[in-house]
DNA sequence: ATGAAAGCGCTAACAC
DNA sequence: GTGTTAGCGCTTTCAT
């Protein structure tokens, strides 16, 4: 900037003002300096600017990972959320700092904030970390978590309406003739627990007694899910429908069912969750509960900015919607 | 830090040294300061540190988007690459700044560098921007592009061996009895052009004359691809195999073929490209050319760091491999 | 309308 | 082993 000032024959103060479009500096010099900067490929050093102004236009997006599995971000749903956040932030002129932190030590997520690198943090994946997240929020970092709304929650969460989602899916399966409906998902995750509650409510409404044998407690990871479903099939326990807590699980299950000669939807109805792009390309196209991904990105970002501005940030629940395709149409 | 110094009864210089683990400061005070900092949730302001030391531990990953379609990052392959890069950078203690820039104005990608926000840039998706990328590289920013190696290339590219991939896929289809092999992809993209060249070579080896009617020039976007394939089917032109330049295209095509009562693999063999996670869950499981995604992340990051260090960064081509599943096994 | 100068939080000579 | 001080590149009062 000093160079620029010298070349323009003015002081750095003027250059700074000009580059920031201050009306104090005459239009002529403002333009002259602007063009000089452009021709020199000069850009204000963002670090110095941030240091001086104590502001900052970047947001951290944290995806926790299991220390053991050390797995790559892989579920298309997470990735779609990431894209949605990227778009929402880009629209507001903010950058996105992608960070992976050990899920056992989420406190690391706040370092980005405490070191002044970001103005706040978005965490995708609440998992089992409710307490850790509360602790994190209490350290003062603006934080928004994609996940379920829980009792005694200090942090702000934005999430789909999981209870309604579970009900929607299950009611639909019942309407279509399902009576022995398998539930697939890991209820130790808050979001899944709520979907399970919706499943139970819908069963109760229809006067169907839930059979614990049909509740498959499997993580969002196809390997174990396939094993569990295989055991179920081979045990000979009857079922005529599946409500899976993710599309990945649902599609993987449909494939397995085919292997065992069970036709979808003729013999088994299937409903998934998320409505990832693949759901409509599955065979048969998958009925699923659509999560409002684009809206989610916008809401999350809005909530985060509210938090940064010191405004209250109540948890938000976004509506979900049932998308009926052929996997549930007998 | 001044506060910390006061509380510890030392000067800021000592605190700085202690926090950076300098052996000059006595172990006792070093530990004392360390614990004090921890108890205060204090973290060195990274912006100020970067400003002073003129270093920086963040890398920009840019995903261009079309100004028109303004579409979300959506192809699972891109997202998998992103995950791989995130892992590779995390392993080296670097942060990843995710940025979306208008593909018509890629020069914007260098701003992150010129403003000192990042030490270099990784661009996923070479598309048609060879010239722009060259210009970008010439501005001095360390840049690595995932894509094909091209003549007169100034920037460093890391990519799969597209020529071999095209050959592998096509030879396999021929071995399996394919004679009239459809090619799907947009040859205006360098990577696809190389795969097409491989396709042509394999045809020539087998003495099969290429039929231009079988070359479907469609983008990586299923809508147009489906339209083109539909036209081909309805035109009555015979074909017995498809080589699609992405798994998304391939799976979408299989779905369409089923609609038209063409059995895969009995009537039409299909091979895809990328080996995204979904390929093995498709129906039938998709034979495909595997891109080395995990290795790619590591290579890209290595190349970028070489560039930052001022070392030469020749383009790198990574081996691909054919993964045979049922979609091509008649 | 423009300039001089202080200071954002940190590190690294250089002194002691 | 520790303190003093200059300065990274910028913005912003306060003067003029």
Automatic annotation (TrEMBL), chains A, B:
Keywords: DNA-binding, Transcription, Transcription regulation
Sequence ranges assigned to domain HTH lacI-type in this UniProt record: 1-53
Alphabetized Pfam families for the sequence: LacI, Peripla_BP_3
Recorded GO MF terms: DNA-binding transcription factor activity; transcription cis-regulatory region binding
Protein name: Transcriptional regulator, LacI family
Organism: Leptothrix cholodnii (strain ATCC 51168 / LMG 8142 / SP-6) (Leptothrix discophora (strain SP-6))
